[in-house]
Amino acid sequence: MRVEFFLFDTDYLQKEGQVLVRFFGKTEEGKTVACFFEYEPYFYVLPQDPNKAEREIKELLKDKKVKLKRMEKVTKDLEGQEREFLKVFCELPQDTQKIRDEIKKLEKRRGGSGSVEEEYEYSINFYRRFLLDEKIDGSCWLQVKGEPFESNLNADLTIKGREIKVLERVKPPALKLLSFDIETYEKAGKKNIIMLSLWGEKLKKVLTYHQGNFPPWVEVVDSEKKLLERFVEIVNSYDPDIILTFNGDAFDFPVIQERMAQNKVKLVLSRDGEEMKFTRRARVSSARIKGRVHIDLFTFIRNILSPNLQTEVLSLDAVSSELLGDQKIEMDYQELLESWQKKKDLAKLAEYCLKDSELTFKLASLLLPQILEISRTVGQLPFDTSRMTYGQLAEWYLTRKAVEMGKIIPNQPKWEDIKKRKTFTYAGGFVKEPIAGLHENVAVLDFRSLYPSIIATFNISPETLNCSCCENKTNYKVPETNYWFCQEKKGFVSQVIKELIEKRALLKEKLKTIDRESLEARFLDNRQLSLKIVANATYGMFAFAGAKWYCRECAESCTAFGRHFIKQTIKEAENKGFTVVYADTDSCFIKEPESRGDLFQETEEFLNYVNKKLPGILELELQGIYKRGIFIPRGTAPGTAKKRYALIDENDNLVIRGLETVRRDWCNLAKEVQRQVLVYILKNKEVNKALNYVRNVIKMLRKRQIPLKDLTIYEQLTKPISSYKQIGPHVVAAQKMLKRGRPVGEGMLVMFAITQGEGSISERAEPIEDVTCEMIDESYYIDNQIIPAALRVLQVLSVSKEKLLGEALF
DNA sequence: ATGAATCGGGG
DNA sequence: GTGTACGATTCAT
User: In whole angstroms, what is the distance from residue A725 CA to residue A716 CA?
Assistant: First the structure.
């Protein structure tokens, strides 16, 4: 039989000593497909002498528990050199590590005979190995030939695959999406789930167990246990392909797992009957559900999207506002607790809970196509890809290219090497301090993908660094360094990046020829965006100490070339009579003297002039023209502080960078003050109104007219209370709660306010239940909350603390 | 002053 | 499946 389906999840399993790779996917008609393949685990050994090594390896493993299947001699490219390797086939996936641990004893440096020099690719996960070798994109259309296969999976079609082919088709079938969200309430130091909402194309539901005046989409059950059981039932009967959460890896799933265990309910959401499992990652674990894809949008947004967002706060509320123009229902945590406790306004609580799922679902409609395209580019599963950092994306892209090109994948560095690598620092991008204040008519120029262009143009790659063949050529030296890169042979990384850039340029050309609103355009756009993301990630990967293709000199050379070209651009601009208001790494903000005419035309001419001189694929582009811009110098630590500026274009569109501080460890009042000030200043330029507003807030604080809930600060107790070395305000508040006989647990959200009295800020932190308005230390709130929040924006217009406060005294 | 420790996001 | 951010705030020295 032959089946065509869209792949979205893969894993492997062992059955009676047999190893099978398993694919999950969906056909055009909406049928769920599970597909099994046989495959052999293996890794590579670099021998000193292949025959001797083969003999010694056999001898070494003779009496061991782990057995190797067989060995083959193969030729592979190692760091640009053709070498002979032994390909060692194993019985089970976990055996590659075990057998490698035996074989490494033959290395000379470990006291062996020296017949073996090194081992490679022994720690690549088995299903990833399969995807790499079969050249399968992480999420793509496949054609599989095979036979029907017995299984007890929740799938319409189960096949044992024989042949597999990647199809060109791009558009995924209609995948079924389901988002969910929980609300919790702390009781005796433990979180209880009080509400759970679900949102899908054809499903809107809230589960809870307090009676209330609810709309029909609320289902009231008897208890938390029933709620959890219903959740499992609903998910399985809705049978989604993709499950979406916002911070589900670190919050919703851990809480659900803990409550399921407490209530003795099994958390079976998978298509193979297995319980949800956490797969370990660097810091947090990821909740994995076999046969479906759990995508935690928060992880993806934090790792990949955040540099391109204006908001610095990655809350569901802030991200939804920016990307969807839609917000959470306003309800602070105290209100939520009160609502549940007193069983009042429970309908609002349900609305609030449902809205979170709705926002998560809507964000997914926007972001899932992007995630799937990135997954196709790097050739890894959507589950894995959506959780990768920038560097990992680059690394996996290089990994698939290396396999395609018959190259050995470098080993991950050892812990000591990582530590050593981390001790080196090097110069970053060049920053020209901004001319502080307000500027009219500013053109923003930037280098298109500066670092990838430099890597491609100057052949920057670990193996081309300081080659012996080009030592005496002087025209390819990296500025301000003693490095050079080979001019004779292409480097691996540079070649791959060059192809990536060219592919993207082609896509962008094609995009120009088709309707921007068409479905095809949306795909092409996500495709080119994914290429851009991977290309941009490569520079950072060079500098990341844990990377397989780590190369400090390569990273250093990128920034050195970058500094060279931005400085040159600044000089050229000044020669042409422009004023350079600000420049940073790859961008340059210019304005022209008032006597001159059309900024747009002048800028275009300047760009033409500069671009003729630039080498290779380096190109300076017009990013935008703004009628007004405000810039803030970096302050005390040059080179470390983030960009801070605000721009307004002809159509009153705002671009704000680095002016936001509002997180939950700030009180509501501070958040509101900052929001109001931003509105006054940047939208309407009403500076005096903003000043008066802030002064009025300060007055109200002094008169104690601000409700307590706007002064509450929320901070999490991330570890057991006894293990704190530095006792911060939230820790002190928690200690006081404990002393007063209230339960305190790890992971608890501590609510407190700063009160008057003796000692440090921390010592004056009081649990919110024990605070009255009279106790509030108004000067803390004025100096540490209101003024910093307001000044962050107001300093743009050179308003000082004194000016803000001075007149408030009258 | 400067450095170390801690936090965010979710509820 | 080894391990990644980073800027701001407060305590500690």
Answer: 16
Phi and psi dihedrals of A81, rounded to 5? -115, 140
Written as six digits, the tokens of A422 are 């981390």
Q: What is the pTM of this model?
A: 0.92
Strand B footprint at Cβ < 7 Å? Answer: A 181-184, 191, 246-247, 250-251, 284, 298, 313-317, 333, 336, 356, 663-665, 714-719, 724-726, 728, 730-731, 747-749
Rounded CA-CA distance A553/A551 in Å is 5
- Partners of residue A76 on adjacent β-strands: A83
Strand C contact with A641 (CB < 7 A): yes
**Strand B: which bases are under 7 Å from protein Cβ?**
4-11
Does the C-beta of A547 come within 7 A of strand C? Answer: yes
Which nucleotide lies closest to A319 by the C1' atom and the CA atom? B9
Q: Point out the nucleotide closest to A640 (alpha carbon to C1′).
A: C7
Identity of residue A739 = K
Cα A232 to chain centroid distance, Å, stands at: 29
| Strand, helix or coil for residue A36 | strand
pLDDT at A204 over 80: yes
**Of all protein residues, which has its CA closest to the C1' atom of B5?**
A726
DSSP A99-163: HHHHHGGGBGGGTS-SSEEEEES-SS-HHHHHHHHTT--SS-EEEEEEEE-----S-SEEEEEEE
Residue listed under structure tokens 């196509």: A369
Q: How far is CA A421 from CA A416, A640, A667, A797, in A?
A: 9, 20, 40, 43
Average model confidence (pLDDT) for chain A?
90
HSE, side-chain direction, 13 A CA sphere, residue A228: 22
Confidence band of A645 (pLDDT split at 50, 70, 90): confident
C-alpha span between A359 and A380 (Å, rounded): 27
SS (H, E, C) A386-444: CCCCHHHHHHHHHHHHHHHCCECCCCCCCHHHHHHHHCCCCCCCCEECCCCEEEEEEEE
CA dist A465 and A734 (Å) reads 55
What mean pLDDT is predicted for residues A538-560? 91
List pLDDT tens digits, range A356-402.
999 999 999 999 999 999 999 999 999 999 999 888 999 999 999 99
Indicate if CB(A745) is under 7 A from strand C.
no
For the cut 60, the answer to whether the pLDDT of residue A639 exceeds it is: no
Measure the CA–CA gap between A670 and A676, rounded to whole angstroms.
10
